[in-house]
Amino acid sequence: MAENLMTIARGQSIREPPLFDDRNYTEWKEHMETFTKSLDFKLWLIIKNGPNVPKKVVNGIEEEKSEDDFDDEDMKSVQQASKARHILLCALINSDVYKEILHFKTAKQIWDELENRDRIKNVNSSTPQTNDVEPRSDQHNGPNFAFVDKTGNPKNNDFFKLCVPLYKHALEGNWEEAKKILKKDERLKNAYIASGWPTVLHIAAGAGVGEKHVHFVQRLMKEFLDEGDLLLEDYNGNTAFFFAAAFGSMQVVDLMLEMNRSVANARGVKGFTPVHFAALQGRCEMAWHLYDITKPIFTEDDWNQLFFNCINTGLYGLALEMAEAKPELAYARDYHDETALHLLAKNHSDSCCQSPHHQSHTIMINPGMKQEVVYQLVNSLWSTICKTSTKDDIIDIISKPCQPIFAAAEVGNFGFLSELISGYPSLIWAKDEKEQTIIHKAVKYRQASIYNVIHEIGCQKDIIVTMVDTSGNTLLHLAAQIAPPSSLELVSGAAFQMCLELVWFKEVKKIMPPSFIKSTNSEGLTAGELFTREHTQLRKDAESWMKSTAENCMLIATVIATGVFAAAISIPGGVDDAKGKPNYLKKPSFLVFAISDAAAFISSAAAILIFLSILVSRYAESDFYKSLPLKLIFGLVALFFSITSMMVAVASAFFITYYYDSDWVPGFISAFVCLPILLFIFLQFKLWYVIMYSTFYCKNLFKPDKKMLYVLKD
User: Fold this and answer.
1) H or E element, residue 10
2) φ and ψ of 19, to 5 deg
3) Which of 297, 324, 358 is the last residue of a domain?
4) What domain range is 65 assigned to?
5) 697 lies in a domain?
6) At what angle do helices 627-658 and 536-569 cross, to 10 degrees?
7) Residue 503 CB: number of other CB atoms within 10 A?
8) H helix intervals, 371-430
9) Could you say which of 72, 100, 126 is where a domain stops?
């Protein structure tokens, strides 16, 4: 475990691929395969077997389609292939590997090339050279090889008698047992005790943050080690301090700093310092703790690497501190030639850790938003760029390799766009390679908060809504296209997804000039025709779901109606044969029974009629906008009322029948009649929420409670 800690960098989110720095390919390969399968198994098949290349037959000869000939299935196939390639490229953090791999056009080619590189490397490493395998090329402060040779193989039986149990005790934090072993042979205190060349201090420092592990390190340093032992390096050139920093063991770090403060400035694999690894592992407090100690020795590469590590792992507070201390970081670019703004455009989660400085020192941003550190960072970077660059330089900076405003619009990063556009309003008119603005992106990806900016620009919106992209699509055509799966999944159930799509289409239609509503795109389709074609399958799924729900609910309502009708004609307590009246007619419990039974029958009958009207509906597109959702709401309300009334009738019947003989029976039954009612509410709550959200709340998406454009008052 210890020797592999720093060779595979893991992201702090299940959505981020494991990073590959050209070390430990086998472990990275397994991790990447698992990650890809968990994301989408189809992506793994593309990486493993290659993409499905769209082809056509011309004069009996099969050839690849051009992009202009792609149909919807072809586009989806190519999109999946591009996504698979993108994932692999994003995982490559070694610039040399990235440059060598970049020219490969498919994910399978990249995957095979990485496999081939590793195979060649293994062949070279297994070729007989000299007797020893050397560590990194620069000066290496290595422990002694008393128990293992330089290849990591045991030299004698002492390895199994001493090193193996010592390793286990260090992992467990069992100091008393480890101390006994160390006393048997003092060479163990600074000897390699496993492959990868870790010492007992390396193992203990990275074993955990619990009290017993801290105690283990404290006693080991006090009784056996001197300050020079803290600088001993493993095979990768990492000291034990790196392990403590990466695991976030603050007490262990402080103990080591107290003995030898220079350990914080020691450089390990890739020449990075411990603070870089702490940031890479998302150890916020640790990164802050080491930042002030280490920054005096930072090179330009150190500043850039730590800055991007902080952004990638969400340590925005530290990234903001660095950006204020070194403004030129606003122009820095990572291995993928992206600036910090490019990275921040895609991610808008706030950091969980700030320094005391930034808790009292706040950069003012949009007053209508929560003052999150991530947007303060965006504001700082953007202000630096705008103040120190010309108009052409600004456009050039944010246009390569892509424009971050469009990435932000796609994911709905409102705060990011608010800062950029408020600082440079002309960005509203910026277009991508498809001649689409951020408003077009917002409609295409169903980002209502971004789309609402169109209501803030006055009559200028009349110009944007008339813009046509390279495919001849107007803004309404983009609303007519089916939403991406991530946007559709905001609501569950095909019927409510159809409702949400209709809400978007009708909202965009309101702002379109009449002459553009009937305009056709490059396929010769109007927006209405495109909507029908794109949503054919969704409408069928919605119809099937609605019918199935109505049939099941109608069956339940019918059973209730039958039961309560039978209860009404077989009166509890019986009838006086002489007078023909119920025996308990004048009792309050009988009155409750009569009213609740009648209410249950009437409401269940109403539910039957409502669900029947759903079953015989025509299921046109417009029906899913209001008619069918409202019918379903009223039907479920009637069904719920009938169930509640039926349970009240049951409880009152028990009171009538058993009250005089057994007092506890009716009371006990009455208490439990609430259980089915509560169970119905609990099990159907999600359905209720989705119905209310899609029918009522979604229509309020276009009534914003905050503005994107703002001006701070002095």
Assistant:
1) none
2) -90, 140
3) 297
4) 2-126
5) no
6) 20
7) 22
8) 373-388, 391-399, 404-411, 414-423
9) 126
Secondary structure class of 160 (helix, strand, coil):
helix
What distance in Å separates the CA atoms of residue 201 and residue 233, rounded to the nearest whole number? 10
CA 227 to chain centre: 44
Cβ atoms of residues 636 and 692 within 8 Å: no
- What global pTM score does this model have? 0.71
Neighbour-count burial for 10-34, b at 16+ CB within 10 Å, e otherwise: ebeeeebbbbbbbebbeebbebbee
On whether both 163 and 293 belong to a single domain, the answer is yes
By the 8 A CB rule, do 526 and 478 touch? no
Instruction: Identify whether residues 613 and 549 lie together within a single domain.
Output: yes
Alpha-carbon gap, residue 66 to 106, rounded angstroms: 17
User: Over the stretch 413-427, which tens digit does the pLDDT of each residue have?
Assistant: 999 999 999 988 889
Mean pLDDT of 381-399: 87
Cα 161 to Cα 97, 164, 187, 192, 234: the distances in Å are 42, 7, 14, 14, 22
**One domain for residues 587 and 644:** yes
DSSP 298: -
Type of residue at 276: H
Residue 562 is encoded by which pair of tokens? 């039958």
Q: What is the pLDDT of residues 188-213, one digit of tens each?
A: 988 988 888 899 999 999 888 889 99
Asked whether residue 274 carries a pLDDT value surpassing 60, the answer given is yes
Report yes or no: 245 and 214 within 8 Å, Cβ to Cβ: no
